[in-house]
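ok so heres the complex, two chains, lmk if somethin looks off
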Amino acid sequence: MRSFRLALGLRSHPVHVGSGLLDQLGELALAEGLSGRCAVVTDHNVAAHYLERALQSLRQAGFQPVAISVEPGEASKSLARLEEVFDRLIDAEMDRSGAIFALGGGVVGDLAGFAAATYLRGVPLVQVPTTVLAQVDSALGGKTAVDHPRGKNLIGAFYQPRLIVADVTTLATLNEREFREGLAEVIKYGAIMDAAFIDELERIMPTLLQRRTAELEAVIHRCLAHKAYVVERDETESDLRTILNFGHTVGHALEAWAGFGRYLHGEAVAIGMNAACTLSCAYAGLAPAAAQRLRRLIEAAGLPLDLPEGWLGEDFKRAMQVDKKRADGGIRFVLLEELGKATLRRLEIDTALSGLR
Amino acid sequence: MRSFRLALGLRSHPVHVGSGLLDQLGELALAEGLSGRCAVVTDHNVAAHYLERALQSLRQAGFQPVAISVEPGEASKSLARLEEVFDRLIDAEMDRSGAIFALGGGVVGDLAGFAAATYLRGVPLVQVPTTVLAQVDSALGGKTAVDHPRGKNLIGAFYQPRLIVADVTTLATLNEREFREGLAEVIKYGAIMDAAFIDELERIMPTLLQRRTAELEAVIHRCLAHKAYVVERDETESDLRTILNFGHTVGHALEAWAGFGRYLHGEAVAIGMNAACTLSCAYAGLAPAAAQRLRRLIEAAGLPLDLPEGWLGEDFKRAMQVDKKRADGGIRFVLLEELGKATLRRLEIDTALSGLR
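and the predicted structre for the whole thing:
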């Protein structure tokens, strides 16, 4: 087990990464001062593999857990599902001392996290991410949200968990596509802030794809440490934290334009990182050879690079404009000056799109 | 105008109390760094009197305001109304820089405040309270919430405004009952932390009931300063802030038991303060003469003292037990050791109820 502490003043909390940590969930939570009634929010897929082990560990540590399982998939990030979670918490007579455990991927983390942020004006939250994407990215940093019919993550809160427990053995049951999409966010950390990590990933990618736990633990810990560095300096994304959106401006637009579900988030981010490489060469001085290295690494992870046929049109442009990170009259892109060094550039949308043509 | 700054680290903000401040709303908001698109959330009653003036002031300061008006009354504190507010904010293309102004009483402040806390994970909030209750209590301290069918304020967030602007001239249009209910919270501050304020209120109550702006400004400023003192020391109600619930344990139960609407909140709190006086004499050493003084002051404000016929039964007991401030196996009451000095006492519910019989 590798552990560190996210330093956020009163909202500081421990982060644990390791093998088999699901069976230590109860004792790790107890060590943070949690106890009594609690709820484990999960989805039906994750529940089939891991719910019983989580409940068992919690019971052994003296908790009285109830399970709340939702349909897998983005559709569960709705105000309607959130209301059902509230109903179940009230049914279980959960009071302010009762923690909510988010056992699952990004959807579960966002939904359960926002429920914890708003039930009785906030109850303790424990993130137990079970996908690569959630372990290296969404579980840490306090972003929680549900979707609105007109946009993703439009309703949410910044709400820090009391504890993060990432058990890398839970990654074994992901299907190939789900596993690989998470590597897009892994590569992202190298691209924006750790050139040596790019070297390392080039070297170990074949082993990583075999999901060897030793490599997974090291890689996920390194990503979390990078994200922690950023979040500690800019919790609410007013400045530095924006660099974590590398590849996401085009990625989000692509997800919205193609209809959610066609591309997994990490796949859209991979394509977005390729686009951001092109813009980085044109507007931030990135060497073409460096851009090529990053593209080859994305390919080695089995991720797509190219925007689909017919992407360039008014619909795509509109999708880019609704992204909530836009600055008035243009879009702020995260670009690379070199591998491991990100920068922000405001580009007119037409300039950006023609650069990608 | 009287002003002070609520000291909460990064969430510190100014509080202004005065006459005619509605016409300075735009410039006061501008001085806090707000600008551009914004939304004024209000209810139909308040809108009829004050919306145009607020919009006018905002436009003169260069804002582009949209108005969102809801039905008056507690029923608007629902997830369904909240969703409508989100729809309107998206219609108006509000981004993260766009402030939400809550123009109205406690319902509007709670609904608009929770919308501001959760739209795009948080946008700037300005509280513009227009009732006594909201000016002396609910606008300050960051509590926001909507109701759940099974309980008030079950879904919400602690979210501090960027600015509070209390214009005491807006109190002129309150009906007599609404004006007087706010005085219950005014008297509460004297009871729990300022014995000299009780003397003062005994002296000026007749003038206060005539709503003379000079007295109103002084009284509301004094109450806000007291609340600020408490909130600065315990923002999320883990300890000291509990004393603000003096009179509220029985008050909340009475509201729930009688059906929301029969008693105004302040009326229920007045009756609850009388009950808390009785328990204070029995369990916290309050002198009977002091309890009598407080009761006479409540009466002088035109507020009720007595629990209604038939209150003592299983339904009332259940209503007291669901109050979310309960501690396991008993109820933590805010009691008085003397006028101006509050204390916490855990009482078994049957003990408390028989003391009130």
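quick notes: The longest strand of chain B covers residues 151-158. thats all i got rn
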